[in-house]
Design goal:
By secondary structure, this protein is α+β, with helices and mostly antiparallel strands. The protein has three helices and three strands; from the N terminus they run E-H-H-E-E-H. The longest helix has 14 residues. It binds zinc ion.
Length: 79
């Protein structure tokens, strides 16, 4: 159930997903960071995203960050 809240992002619909969330411009301009390692998120390294506190948190492609995301979302009970 929790995992449904996490959107795995694939290249072909990445732009559409970001646009729907109104963060496509932010990502394009390098204004979004990975929630866990603070690296700049771009169209290449964006792996997943999830909602928190009315905002969208982005997660980069590092295995460590993806693991943290699942632990974090599980603990917080997002959704
Ligand atoms: Zn990261």
């Amino acid at each position: 159930m929790l995992k449904k809240e996490i959107k795995a992002v694939h290249d072909k619909d990445l732009e559409a997903v970001l646009k729907n969330l109104n963060i496509l411009d932010d990502v394009s301009q390098g204004e979004r960071k990975c929630k866990f390692c603070d690296c700049i998120i771009n169209m290449t390294n964006l792996q997943a995203l999830f909602p928190e506190s009315g905002d969208i948190k982005l997660v980069c492609e590092k295995a460590e960050c993806i693991k943290k995301m699942y632990e974090y979302v599980g603990e917080k009970g997002i959704g």
